[in-house]
Amino acid sequence: MKKILAAIIVSGTFAAIPASAEPYVGAGLGLSRTDARNTSTKLLAGFQASQNFGVEVAYNNFGGYRGATATAWSVAMTGTLPINPEWDILAKLGATENRTTMPGSGRQSDLLLGLGAGYNINKNVAVRFEYEDFGKLPADNLGNRWRATNWSLNGKYSF
């Protein structure tokens, strides 16, 4: 059911993007929380369909997790509320597929929620500070399902 919901969200979002959409790419560093605190990395790409709405795809590496690595692929609808020409507030709602490299571990699909603030340096360059909740990771060897959250500082370049 979650995969069907994610497919509907993605399809509807891409259908709503006009030809004048502004594409962007970015990368970030952060602090993740799984079973421990770790340094995280992020790569992202998206389309800002209008001043207030867009869609974003991202890859997150949460660092160490139970002697292995935890990662996530996500797709989300974004909502942006401009405060003034330089500052805006960002919210995300989407789907994520969380993975670990532990033997016998699988994938865990979950809901992605995020909030952040952005500062536009100029028309093309911006920085964002974000908090994202990726839901639960796949179960470890003991059956525990840890949540994955991430605080990150991201650079963004719009074309």
Topology:
Blueprint: H1 2-16, E1 22-33, E2 37-48, E3 53-65, E4 68-82, E5 87-100, E6 107-120, E7 125-136, E8 147-158
Antiparallel strand pairs: 1-2, 1-8, 2-3, 3-4, 4-5, 5-6, 6-7, 7-8
- Strands of the biggest beta sheet: in what spatial order? 1-2-3-4-5-6-7-8
Report how far the terminal alpha carbons are from each other: 35 Å
**Count of alpha/pi helices:** 1
| Strand fraction | over 45%
Q: Can you summarize this structure?
A:
The chain is mainly beta and 159 residues long.
Could you characterize what this model shows?
By secondary structure, the protein is mostly beta strands. It has one domain (2-17, 46-158): Porin (Beta Barrel). Helix content is 9%, strand content 65%. It has one helix at residues 2-16; strands spanning 22-33, 37-48, 53-65, 68-82, 87-100, 107-120, 125-136, 147-158. The protein has an 8-stranded antiparallel β-barrel. Strand 3 and strand 4 form a beta hairpin. The radius of gyration is 16 Å and the shape is elongated. The termini are far apart. The model has no long low-confidence stretch (mean pLDDT 90).
List keywords for this structure.
159 residues; mainly beta; Porin; eight-stranded antiparallel barrel; 1 helix; elongated
